[in-house]
Amino acid sequence: QMSTLLEAYKDDPVQLHHLIPLDFPSLRAVPESHVWPESYNFRVSPSDENLSIPIVDLKDPNIADNIGRACQTWGIFQVTNHGLPSGLLEDVEYEARRLFSLPVEQKRKVLRSPCGATGYGCARITPFFPKLMWHEGFTVMGSSVDHARVLWPHGYKRFCDAMDNYQKHMKTLAHNLFLTILSSLDLSEPEKNWAAAVYDSESNALQLNSYPACPDPTRTIGLAPHTDSLLLTILHHCETNGLQTFRDGFGWVPVHQVSGALTVNVGDLLHILSNGKFPTVCHRAVVNRTRHRISVAYFYGPRADSVFGPFSRLGFPRYRTLTLKEYIGIKAKHLDKALSLITN
Ligand SMILES: C=C1C[C@]23C[C@@]1(O)CC[C@H]2[C@@]12CCC[C@@](C)(C(=O)O1)[C@H]2[C@@H]3C(=O)O
Ligand SMILES: O=C(O)CCC(=O)C(=O)O
Ligand SMILES: [Fe+2]
Question: Between 286 and 10, where is the model more confident?
């Protein structure tokens, strides 16, 4: 069955097919293609060291208030007591590592095609930046069996099972988080019904990120600054830090993940729905010298043809109403200018 999000990406191809991740482990130095201008300033200023994103306990009785506050002030927070079996978190990390440790020739067999949204390759945001990233990714939407069969003709099942199982659990968690976040807003009955129905007609994606150990981590970047497009993202850091979030007035703040926790961030769609009350959050990933960092991001959204705009009781709508498909098209062309282009 064709995912509607997949179709949306087909119509907005990014020119990525000529960009193929390097064979990172074979490199003793960072090549010019991956050396970023110093203006990107990958170091975190010392004053930020004591700052940290909120930690929200999902079993706390004040959960709605806590999450609402976290979304308003930071747009990114960690969740504990999220109910995900730890074995599942381990499995998905294990399978991601298994994939990225394949020889480059093997991985290149499942390269994302120009019009495709799934498979192996550079991040979609790559063409917007002057340099390449110390990163390789693998995107899954729905079943991963077609690609997994190419990678492991006789051992694809465990990969697919781990991805399926992970997506199933993530979908439930993401939807519960979505409703909890919305419960701190004043919604009309039809709006509440619309939100509840997202679960049955959702679109989602799973992005496996790989940041190999880097000989000179201060000169390059893992994932360039960006905001996520859908409603919310749930990130599993696999116990290695590297994510940083931008906060106005503070600068780049590192996310030190509590062991076993997951990091949740607001995406552009939730920003639009909340009329800017829950701002989308700009984040990036840095690399390190010794560890090969893996992260797994789950993106949750409504179906691509769903029409959305700011909820009605949140004041004058700052954004116009549009479909997710249309928004993805604008983002594919204009990246971080997308929100300002749909401003009323
Ligand atoms: C549904 C999706 C969100 C995403 C594009 C994608 O099709 C799958 C990959 C996602 C990702 C991960 C890295 C950062 C990002 C901006 C990118 O280039 O690809 C996000 C995309 C997004 O949120 O727009
Ligand atoms: O790896 C990380 O810490 C960030 C990943 C991310 O931002 C993404 O996949 O959108
Ligand atoms: Fe992201």
Answer: 286
